[in-house]
Amino acid sequence: MAPTTQNRVAAVTGGAGGIGSATVARLRAAGWQVAILDRDMDLARKIAAETGGVAHEIDLADGNSIRSAADWVEANMGPVEALACVAAHLENPHNPQDQDPDEWEAILKVNLTGTFKTLNAFGNPMRQRGKGAIVTVGSITSTNSSPLMAYGPTKAGIINMTQNFAVAWGREGVRLNVVHPGPTRTPAVEASYARGERSPDVMIRQTALGRLVMPEEVANAIHFLLSDEAAAITGIEMTVDSGTRATGLWSLYGGVPDNNAG
Ligand SMILES: NC(=O)c1ccc[n+]([C@@H]2O[C@H](COP(=O)([O-])OP(=O)(O)OC[C@H]3O[C@@H](n4cnc5c(N)ncnc54)[C@H](O)[C@@H]3O)[C@@H](O)[C@H]2O)c1
Predict the structure, then answer these.
(1) 138 Cα nearest atom in ligand 1
(2) Right CATH for 9-253 from 3.10.180.10, 3.40.50.720, 2.40.440.10, 3.40.140.10
(3) Burial state string for 119-131 with b = 16 or more CB within 10 A and e = fewer than 16
(4) Tens digits of per-residue pLDDT, 51-69?
């Protein structure tokens, strides 16, 4: 019989956001008890009411907050078997000479240092119990240059960090994998389109599938990698980008064929 997820505990950082809340909903649908960890508590409570998860505050810029959130979930919900590290400090495109130095520091603090501390705070108890699965969230900007000057390097670092932990903790029963979303239609990204900072049409032209990704589709990949069905998978990168990475050099040859052109 397949192991049940009933009463098993999962934690999602950034659980109030677009991809995070879709991940919460996907895990809840599979029977997990889910801690929705976010710095935006109003939104986290709303997602908790919609999904039946449990909202609790975390600030990835503050190591004490990360530790106390991990302790709170273990004490109040039970041993955490699955962790999705979805929270991130996002960024708008700009040239390197225009980088705000404070924003650089803030992005590194949340995305790199915060993720490192989250992996340790939630992962060490998993390691001690000999069982756990973790998914970090990268981005297709992690391995391609982009004008996301601070964000891109932090996402590149997350690949290396995840693989380091995957090897260090593999024989202690803890798996770690990275999911790389491409442009995903979250409320935050839709708002950025509305402000004219990004163009969905330009992004769609760079996909193989001719459409952007929905948050639920990233959540499906995160859920799979956290589930027992992925028991032999660790240290990998799974890209959910409607084929954006695959389009590679096609723009040099006139772009991706538009088969709907008539
Ligand atoms: N949406 C996309 O197109 C896209 C593309 C590539 C990668 N990603 C990645 O997917 C993940 C989710 O992105 P999203 O689009 O859902 O964004 P989002 O802004 O909707 O969600 C991010 C969540 O993280 C929380 N957060 C931010 N800083 C925090 C902090 N210091 N402490 C605790 N929580 C904090 C926010 O409150 C928010 O709820 C991020 O890691 C992002 O880098 C998104």
Answers:
(1) 7
(2) 3.40.50.720
(3) bebbbebbbeeee
(4) 999 999 999 999 999 999 9
